[in-house]
Amino acid sequence: MSSEVAGRAAQRVVVVGGGPGGYESALVAAHLGADVTVVDRDGVGGAAVLTDCVPSKTLISTADFMSRFFAAAGLGVKLAESPEPGEVARADMPTVNERVKSLAAAQSADIAARLERDGVTVVRGTGRLDGPERVVVEGADGTTQTLDADVVLVSTGARPRELASAMPDGERILTWQQVYDVPELPEHVVVVGSGVTGAEFAHAYLGLGCEVTLVSSRDRVLPGEDPDAAAVIEDVFKRRGMNVLGRSRAESVVRDGDGVLVTLTDGRTVSASHCVMAVGSVPNTEDVGLASAGVALSSSGHVQVDSVSRTTARGVYAAGDCTGVLPLASVAAMQGRTAMSHALGDAVAPLNLRAVAANIFTDPEIATVGWSAPALDEAGIGYEAVMLPLATNPRAKMQNVRDGFVKLFSRSGSGVVLGGVVVAPRASELIFPVALAVQTKLTVDQVAASFTVYPSMSGSIAEAARQLHARPS
Q1: pLDDT score of 105 more than 50
Q2: pTM of the full predicted structure?
Q3: CA-CA distances (angstroms) from residue 146 to 128, 134, 168, 237, 377?
Q4: Quick one: which of 204, 211, 201 has its CA closest to 241?
Q5: pLDDT tens digits for 247-265?
Q6: Does residue 322 contact residue 157 with C-beta atoms inside 8 Å?
């Protein structure tokens, strides 16, 4: 890369952390002509690629593939009898774990190759700010080097929250980052926490053929999601044999011989072979030199940023889970891209959280974008809503899909699409047209006027839009 851009010295950008917020910001900065260095400790791609998103969704893909065998009879497919009555397929965990880790490593290598191709320097080590214009890197061998910077971006991510009464040991009591080292298929898994991470791992282990108990401290699983969507998932979980303990809170988890003993606050106990703790995360913001550099943290330890990812220190930006904005890889990447565009003088728009599409990889998946009904009610915005069950969709009938729906929200009067919820197989793909409508402020009539394939799941999105068409007064 040239160190001169348009006759002036290139801006020096140092990115601390190689996750989605870090490597995406580095690519944008390099494209804009900056001299970019990424300080990475664990591997390019960060936790999202190496221990969180990519591995967990790979594990879920294996579980979903196995589930097809069990659903085959409903499609008229008769499978040969297996040696053990009722056993259609069984997961070989060493093979599954090897595939998960190999895929994560391959994705990390692809990202590293892209950074190198674009002229980004990657320095292996732990980065710490020494004021707002300098980053000190400590290598694994104890050596240090100092990097001067015109712009610093902090993208140090987060790690699983640990409870003193349920400390992970990496063998039987596990965080979600440790499950890929379990050598055998667990007989009975207790998942503590029924948020997104807990629900996804409970679904995965159920699909792999394990007995699963889900401990939920709230009235229902996925308490922060659309109530109708959460009700569908909880019903599916229970129907497939999961033991869902609602309004229950784990007081402690301890080793009990070759298994674990989970004690609930009401005195009940659950014995199992393994326990996965999914009780939130904490930001990796300690020992990064943030306070001395003038970077303000919230009471939870997250870096405080504005809508273009600036911190309180001049020239220092932050992106990703360390900011606590939204714990999504897509949001981290957008924060990083926005930060570099702003820092290097390119055109930029503030982060629009109302246009963020998110997905929960259960079966069926839950995808959302834009405003939710509770948020619209709280804001006092007039809206219309329609929910269509997928059971009436012809393609869903062909694929034996009975659970799920499409829900759209539109502004009263104008008909502008405000948000949507899709509960369906591959909802992560189906939400994209709704996300486009929200981002570009399309009306329900414009969505309804777009052609869809017949038969297709996306036809339900167009049909929901048609039903939101305002009747002549």
Answers
A1: yes
A2: 0.92
A3: 10, 7, 36, 52, 52
A4: 211
A5: 999 999 999 999 999 999 9
A6: yes
